[in-house]
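Annual report, structural modelling task.

Input specification for the glutathione complex:
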Amino acid sequence: MIDLYAAGTSNGLRARMALEECGLAYKLNPIALDKGEHKTPQFLALNPNAQIPVIVDHEGPGGKPLTLAQSTAILVYCAEKSGKFMPRDGAARAAMWEALMSASTDVTPTFGSINAVLRSEEPHAPSAELFKERWKQYLKVWDDRLARQKYCAGNEMTIADISLYGIYARAKAAAAQLCEGFPSVARWAGEMAARPAMQRAVKF
Ligand SMILES: N[C@@H](CCC(=O)N[C@@H](CS)C(=O)NCC(=O)O)C(=O)O
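The model returned the following structure:
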């Protein structure tokens, strides 16, 4: 059994989507960020960075408990534990890593930057524009790619799809206008949203 500590943010969604899609047994422990539940001594013992998501796998490697933060590390851990969503072939695996890094380290932090700038006590319009343009540029590249292939890293679903869908689902819910004008991304997102595991994962 795995304990998941999360909220319905992009990073929280990514971890829960990973557990659901990989078919791993887990218990959701919701963390209310607005109430500061990520800053309690109990939570800081799990992640001293005071950030969700965190998992505790009570039957980790070697049968020992494992505590793990970082949504993308959790995603890779779930894929390796279940043997799903990570191609073995060299070229397909390299494409998966490239797509995963784009979703987790380019697209996701850019959305975080847009939010941070707009929610600031002194919003800085030129910075907001810069991050919005960067977001659109990333989605344009994803749109071109998803016009040519079914999934993020080719014609097989991988953890890159789970990572990108985590941020896309969050952005669509919080700022739908950022997701307009990318028809192939919308086609792919519709297929991801129809997956029963994804439908379970987004219900926080
Ligand atoms: N790189 C980390 C980022 C985690 C993160 O930023 N978590 C946010 C929610 S999406 C959080 O816990 N924020 C609370 C805070 O920073 O006070 C990951 O991928 O898990």
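Residues 90-119 form the longest helix (30 residues).
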